[in-house]
Write a structure and sequence with these properties.
single chain, 397 residues, 17 strands
Length: 397
């Protein structure tokens, strides 16, 4: 890449002095790992999204894995998700020994198609878990997916790693926050630096099920519990139970998050409404300017949906020009990206599970034509104008 005085990455964290002070204060405290900030972050996050429980963990992939474990996913089970997502959305199933499966997307939302899901169930088998992905921060049709879950008896884990701050109205005109787990068993988030709020690395699972909540807490920390209300035996080695006592009741993991990460998360959460408002304002400017350019189209969420706009993907009319345009934008210091290579086209999934090209035509067509433009709260309107003008020039050339 050529050297430029101006480089605009596709995503970037916003860290201010309040964030730094919060982390510094925790580093000076007696707690570094599982301390009071973890619990505070969980409680504040649950309150923000409208869920009863939240469990913080080391990253979004760990959150997906923990959610699968809590639902007792195992060999012989299958999991369905969208081909257009990061590989973690289905790798979590493989960690449990389950079989991966995919359903094609709805082209207007780039999320898992409920119609394709029902067709899959009727022609193949009912999965144990379905993982709809709120791609780009645009909520899926969770009401329809929840209807199918009840009809065909499968579990739902929402992959909301793109969507903290997103919401949608259902058919009863209720405004539902993504993360409330209103139409699912659990909802999973990532706090990677390019996400809408960050803890460096980190993740969260929300749920309204107290039994799942207890399992998530236990699996997060080696399968161990120190809560006497959940002990499976009254005595150990014929001695009375003391304060030192704990039980490993499952094969768990060390997926814990640190106190200083959660101190950052607490401060980031306070700013999340501003971050989302800013992202929406910048996305609206993209819409306005891109409407004046031929050869390109954008996703247009339904009026009932409030997207979090984690990323801003565009679609080129001519897929043969994608690499040329991508390279020219990068050469001008514009950090475009592509989200995502369809998971079923990855060599691992083709070689091990036999997925082939043309398996999911809508997903593959989207991939061939998409480019992700930069979007993050600290971008300026001048940045947007610069990017769109550069894109227009590339297309016209």
């Amino acid at each position: 890449m050529k050297n430029h005085t101006r480089f605009i990455p596709y995503g970037k964290q916003h860290i201010d002095e309040d964030d730094i002070a919060s982390v510094s204060g925790t580093l000076r405290s007696d707690w570094l790992t599982q301390g009071p900030k973890v619990k505070e972050f969980e409680q504040e996050f649950a309150k923000y999204v409208g869920a009863q429980y939240a469990v913080a963990c080391s990253n979004g992939t760990a959150a997906l894995h923990l959610a699968c474990c809590a639902l007792q996913l195992s060999h012989g089970d299958s999991v369905v998700t969208s081909p257009i997502s990061f590989v973690a959305s289905i790798n979590c199933a493989l960690y449990c020994g389950a079989t991966p499966a995919f359903c094609d997307i709805t082209p207007s939302t780039i999320s898992l198609s409920p119609d394709a899901l029902e067709s899959f169930i009727l022609t193949q088998k009912t999965p144990k878990i379905v993982i709809p992905v709120h791609y780009a921060g645009i909520p899926c049709d969770m009401e329809k997916i929840a209807y199918l879950a009840k009809k065909y008896a499968f579990h739902v884990i929402e992959d909301a790693c793109h969507a903290p701050g997103a919401s949608y109205c259902d058919s009863f005109n209720r405004n539902i926050m993504v993360g409330s787990a209103y139409h699912s068993d659990m909802c999973v988030f990532s706090f990677h630096p390019v996400k809408s709020l960050t803890t460096g690395e980190g993740g969260m699972i929300t749920t309204n099920d107290s039994k799942l909540y207890e399992k998530l807490q236990r699996f997060r920390s080696h399968g161990i519990t120190k809560d006497k209300d959940y002990f499976l035996r009254e005595y150990f080695m014929s001695e009375p139970i003391g304060e030192w006592y704990y039980e490993q009741q499952n094969l768990g993991f060390n997926y814990r998050i640190t106190d200083f990460q959660c101190a950052l998360g607490i401060e980031q959460l306070k700013k999340l409404p501003y971050f989302i408002t800013r992202r929406r304002k910048l996305a609206n400017l993209y819409f306005l300017l891109l409407n004046e350019i031929g050869g390109v189209s954008v996703l247009t969420p339904a009026s009932s949906v409030n997207s979090a706009w984690h990323i801003f993907p565009i679609l080129l009319d001519d897929p043969k020009r994608r690499k040329e345009i991508f390279d020219k934008l990068r050469q001008q210091g514009i950090g475009v990206n592509v989200h995502y290579i369809p998971i079923h086209l990855q060599p691992y999934f083709q070689h091990r599970f036999g997925f082939t090209i043309d398996s999911f035509p809508h997903a593959e067509d989207f991939y061939r034509r998409t480019i992700t433009l930069p979007l993050f709260p600290d971008m300026t309107e001048d940045d947007i104008h610069f990017i769109v003008q550069a894109l227009k020039k590339c297309i016209e050339e």
